[in-house]
């Protein structure tokens, strides 16, 4: 009985030691269509994003990368270094960018206007048919270089 308690304690301590080597990361909160910079203390050899339709990762060099919000939701980001050592592991949460946005509600219809300084329609993910043309233009703009 004593030996099994000792073994369990030793395994728990070993698990804490192993997990202590991983950078404990806070959630990365990034607004839709915005970028968030991450500077790494060690060189990265691999980067993985759980769901690339929610967030994208752009690697600038082995110590610097950007996370960009693509769609609302959350996913995870893992960065590994030499010998597969995890340098960063955390959640990426993509939120709406509500700075300078005015929402106008008429019955069940909601329209968003971005007012910087003039108010213009600002279609968003999930908006109804009224914003379909603007969404098509936004999508098309992404393909133009």
UniProtKB/TrEMBL annotation:
Q: Where is this region: Disordered?
A: 122-145
- Please tell me whether the keyword Signal is annotated for this protein: yes
- Pfam entry (one): T2SS-T3SS_pil_N
Question: What residue stretch is flagged as signal peptide?
Answer: 1-25
Q: Known InterPro entries for this protein?
A: T2SS-T3SS_pil_N (IPR032789)
Domain (Pilus formation protein N-terminal) spans 24-95
Q: Which UniProt keywords apply?
A: Signal
| Species name | Terricaulis silvestris
The protein's name is Flp pilus assembly protein, secretin CpaC
